[in-house]
């Protein structure tokens, strides 16, 4: 822009006017494009509003790199239905206001989840539980109608491994019907919102993916309003790439939107339970970081190769710095799973992912 203006100046003013000599180094250059500029689908980050407040380095990453934001915890039921009294919207309001001020797409995570199940809801019997789900979803989704683009309506409905449903309090109280019930309630409250079912390990546990897809197909056949499938995509360096590609293609065959909703890539292992970490890699090396960059590059490429453009809801990173990653605290590990290091500098992983978006 600036350059072309300077080139035009002599033409506009003709020879009667002498143009000032401009050193090339003085011409302002635009910032390098962020990930969201490189991609032709949304690129998201997960963050809590309180985390970014007062942290200008983190804020700069959020505003430059992402076009979509998900609250890490601010919109979960345990952040809203804190006790038996009225719902508390302090955290989700602050998050949605922040994301809107930043001009980002807002993604809602999550309406129903077994983890952190509010204790005061344990005593509800079946009928009261149905009543609660319907009124909770109606209140929350209506409050953000037209502002939240999409919701993870049910998170982790499938058992940790295999193809069965997870035994959650909702399943115990209501039975399998709680899932379509939640989608219908969300759709009534905001018919425009994109409604997702979201789960983990479905890129590598084929029995689990098949169970999830059977559930999705049953809902589609019954006319339940479901728009998308979320792959959390908390993967490991040894997660088979061909298998990831096949799983994405299989899910995309439903015709639904596909969201990689919580991406990170670890060097170590865990058994999917809190505290269940297995430390294999103690020290990060340039070679390991380069291998991770290649894995991030492959992931972006696999998404583009296996999900048709109209079904790409986007790729979202989960607490996208090694300083803030949830992996270390949750699994009691030391790992380096994200695009930014502990000093918030771009890692090779960042550049690998950027390559995968373009090449
Ligand atoms: C995690 C958060 O990152 C942690 O801060 C919190 O303590 C527990 O939840 N799958 C999900 C996310 O769907 O909501 C989880 O987020 C990570 C696993």
TrEMBL record:
Reactions that this protein is recorded to catalyse: Endohydrolysis of (1->4)-beta-D-xylosidic linkages in xylans
InterPro entries in alphabetical order: GH (IPR017853), GH10 (IPR044846), GH10_dom (IPR001000)
Claim: Isomerase is one of the keywords in the record: no
Signal sequence segment: 1-21
Top-level taxon in the UniProt lineage: Bacteria
Biological process according to GO: xylan catabolic process
Record-listed E.C. numbers: 3.2.1.8
Molecular function per GO: endo-1,4-beta-xylanase activity
Alphabetical UniProt keywords: Carbohydrate metabolism, Glycosidase, Hydrolase, Polysaccharide degradation, Signal, Xylan degradation
GH10 domain residues: 29-356
PANTHER family: BETA-XYLANASE, GLYCOSYL HYDROLASE
Protein family (similarity comment): Belongs to the glycosyl hydrolase 10 (cellulase F) family.
Protein known as: Beta-xylanase
Organism the protein comes from: Neolewinella xylanilytica
């Amino acid at each position: 822009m600036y350059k072309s203006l300077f080139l035009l100046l002599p033409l506009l003013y003709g020879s009667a006017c002498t143009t000032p000599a401009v050193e090339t180094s003085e011409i302002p250059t635009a910032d390098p494009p962020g990930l969201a500029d490189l991609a032709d689908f949304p690129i998201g980050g997960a963050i809590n509003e309180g985390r970014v407040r007062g942290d200008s380095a983190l804020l700069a990453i959020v505003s430059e790199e992402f076009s979509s934001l998900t609250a890490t915890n601010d919109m979960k039921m345990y952040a809203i239905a804190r006790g038996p009294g009225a719902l508390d919207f302090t955290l989700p309001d602050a998050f949605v206001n922040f994301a809107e001020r930043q001009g980002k797409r807002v993604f809602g995570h999550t309406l129903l989840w077994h983890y952190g199940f509010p204790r005061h809801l344990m005593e509800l019997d079946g009928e009261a539980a149905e009543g609660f789900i319907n009124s909770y979803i109606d209140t929350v989704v209506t409050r953000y109608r037209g502002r939240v683009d999409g919701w993870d309506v049910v998170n982790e409905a499938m058992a940790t491994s295999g193809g069965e449903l997870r035994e959650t309090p909702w399943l115990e109280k209501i039975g399998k019907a709680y899932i379509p019930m939640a989608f219908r309630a969300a759709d009534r409250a905001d018919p425009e919102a994109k409604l997702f079912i979201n789960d983990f390990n479905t890129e590598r546990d084929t029995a689990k993916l098949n169970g999830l897809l059977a559930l999705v197909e049953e809902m589609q056949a019954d006319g339940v309003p479901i728009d998308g499938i979320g792959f959390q995509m908390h993967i490991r360096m040894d997660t088979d790439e061909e298998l990831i590609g096949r799983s994405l293609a299989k899910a995309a065959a439903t015709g639904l939107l596909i969201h990689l909703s919580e991406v990170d890539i670890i060097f170590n292992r865990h058994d999917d339970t809190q505290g269940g970490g297995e430390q294999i890699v103690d020290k990060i090396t340039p070679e390991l970081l380069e291998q991770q960059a290649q894995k991030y590059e492959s992931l972006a490429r696999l998404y583009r190769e296996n999900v048709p453009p109209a079904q790409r809801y986007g790729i979202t990173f989960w607490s996208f710095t090694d300083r803030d990653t949830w992996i270390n605290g949750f699994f009691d590990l030391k790992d380096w799973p994200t695009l930014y290091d502990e000093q918030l500098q771009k890692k090779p992983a960042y550049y690998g992912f950027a390559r995968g978006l373009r090449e």
